[in-house]
Amino acid sequence: MDPTAANPPGVRTANVQLTVRGRKLGVRISVPDRDVRPAELLPFYRSMSEAMMNMVTHDAAASGYSVSCKAGCGACCRQLVPISAIEARRLAKLVEQMPEPRRSEIKRRFQEAIEKTARADLLARMSNPQDADPRAMREINLEYWKLRIPCPFLENESCSIYADRPIACREFLVVSDPRHCSEDRPDNVRALGPPAGPISHRLPRPYRSPGGKPIDWVPLILSLDFAMRHRNEPDARPATQWVNEFFEGLPK
Ligand code: SF4
Fold first, then answer.
1. Quick one: which of 55, 77, 162, 167 has the most CB atoms within 10 Å?
2. Residues 90-109: pLDDT tens digits?
3. Is residue 6 situated within a structural domain?
């Protein structure tokens, strides 16, 4: 990270030129000038996701496709949403900070969603996605899609935590007819993908699955449970170290 811009007190600002899968991407980033835990860098990770999604949205528009997602359409909020472990812990904290009776209501919805997956014989199979066969995961995603389980944060077909929604939600942009998002299978849904793959999978992965693999995502409805089982946070390190690791992990 080469600072080429003025730095306000306590903040490190830099203009960065990246190459992602052969594409040039210029971003201006600001991070705290101190040791931080990864959760404090969520604004940075979100900004990187936004920069990449802007790039693919622009490309799609040049090819004649436009994003068909609209406010008030929550069809995609009924699929298995894969969020980073860091964000799962962040969502759990957000819920804990909600005033009553809202906190209990949101927790009830999480529990209801989990029970639905248990009744459909999905819960055990989706609990440790990194240890599952990728083909089995595809089947699990399809079964989950058919259950139409609303995200616990979905209210009146809108996201009730919009400013805090996970990166996976920010990256799910559809360019096909919105009617396909409510069909029994997602075969006709055409979604844009960030050029570096899902950014939420590129956040630090400090936790391990029962099979010993780094946990790169957690089903959103299991966030509260995940946070209860993973109470420790990664140690704080200079923000620039986390940022450089993120940049180094991007496909060139
Ligand atoms: S967090 Fe918000 S945007 Fe994401 S699935 Fe839930 S309701 Fe939808």
1. 167
2. 999 999 999 999 999 999 99
3. no
Q: How many angstroms separate the CA atoms of 73 and 53, rounded?
A: 19
Which of 78, 110, 161 should be mutated for ligand 1, with most atoms under 8 A from CB? 161
Within a domain: 2 = no
pLDDT, tens only, 102-157: 999 999 999 999 999 999 999 999 999 889 888 899 999 999 999 999 999 999 99
CA dist., res. 237 & res. 31, Å (int):
12
* Number of independent structural domains in the chain: 1
Range of the domain at 155: 11-249
Among 169, 173, 217, name the best residue to mutate to test ligand 1's pocket (greatest count of ligand atoms within 8 A of Cβ): 169
pTM to 2 decimals?
0.92
Centre of ligand 1 to C-alpha 237, Å, is 30
| Residue 211 covered by a domain | yes
In a domain? residue 1: no
Query: Which residue lies with its CA nearest to atom 8 of ligand 1?
Result: 77
